[in-house]
Design goal:
The complex is a heterodimer of chains A (114) and B (112). Chain A contains no helices and eleven strands. Chain A starts with a strand and ends with a strand. Chain A has strands spanning 5-7, 10-13, 19-24, 31-37, 44-50, 53-57, 65-68, 75-79, 88-95, 104-105, 109-113. Chain A is 0% helix and 49% strand. Chain A is globular, with a radius of gyration of 13 Å. Chain B is built from no helices and eleven strands. In chain B, the strands form two sheets. In chain B, strands 2, 4, 5, 9, 10 and 11 form a six-stranded mixed sheet that branches. A five-stranded antiparallel sheet of chain B has the order 1-3-8-7-6, with no helix packed on it. The chains are: A mainly beta (114), B mainly beta (112). The interface between A and B is medium-sized, with 28 and 26 residues.
Chain lengths: 114, 112
């Protein structure tokens, strides 16, 4: 069990640029979640995959955000035309998908939009 | 709607017990979780409790659940400076998604 891995750890970008983050879940986990955490707040749910299917998206996920999990393993989260309000920690989590399978989180990608 | 609330800050002396409180609103929540977050890091799962339980103990950690009042607490015995972190409670609602709804977190500061 190598844990959930996220890359990069930090990303600084200028407003208007596109960014892409990657998440590698724990290998036997078929569920994958993306959360966003701003300073002083708890994580907020963005979207969820079961295998390669994206089954739920939060209202927080505007049209500029897109997430994929093409082969049911790693996932990418892309933000187009970044805005300063996108600055946050983006957390990925995975779980086995059985009832009460706890979510295991990665260390996150901290995005700063200047 | 789903909402989870926690007090923002708790300060204790090393060796004392810490009690972190949480209230939630979704009565259909099946499992409730406690996570720990150290600066710059992700969330570490500490413990969880099923909604039909009143109490769960795991080494220095004791979770108490009052389902009637929708109140959850985490007690840390013999608190150490290494316990200083932000503690989040989270509820897992019913349904297929198994997504977690988090509180705003409680910053625990342990004074030596």
């Amino acid at each position: 069990d190598t844990g959930v891995s996220q890359d990069p750890r930090h990303k600084i970008t200028k407003r208007g640029q596109n960014v892409t983050f990657r998440c590698d879940p724990i290998s036997e986990h078929n569920r994958l979640y993306w959360y966003r955490q701003t300073l002083g707040q708890g994580p907020e749910f963005l979207t969820y995959f079961q295998n390669e299917a994206q089954l739920e998206k939060s209202r927080l996920l505007s049209d500029r955000f897109s997430a994929e999990r093409p082969k049911g393993s790693f996932s990418t989260l892309e933000i187009q035309r970044t805005e300063q309000g996108d600055s946050a920690m983006y957390l990925c989590a995975s779980s086995r998908g059985q009832e009460n399978s706890p979510l295991h989180f990665g260390n996150g990608t901290r995005l700063t939009v200047t | 709607g789903e909402d989870v609330e926690q007090s923002l800050f708790l300060s204790v002396r090393e060796g004392d017990s810490s009690v972190i409180n949480c209230t939630y609103t979704d009565s259909s929540s099946t499992y409730l979780y406690w996570y720990k977050q150290e600066p710059g890091a992700g969330l570490q799962l500490l413990t969880y409790i099923f909604s039909n339980m009143d109490m769960k103990q795991d080494q220095r950690l004791t979770v108490l659940l009052n389902k009637k009042d929708k109140h959850l607490s985490l007690r840390i015995a013999d608190t150490q400076t290494g316990d200083s972190a932000i503690y989040f409670c989270a509820e897992m609602g019913g349904g297929a998604t198994n997504k977690l709804i988090f509180g705003t977190g409680t910053l625990l500061a342990v004074q030596p």
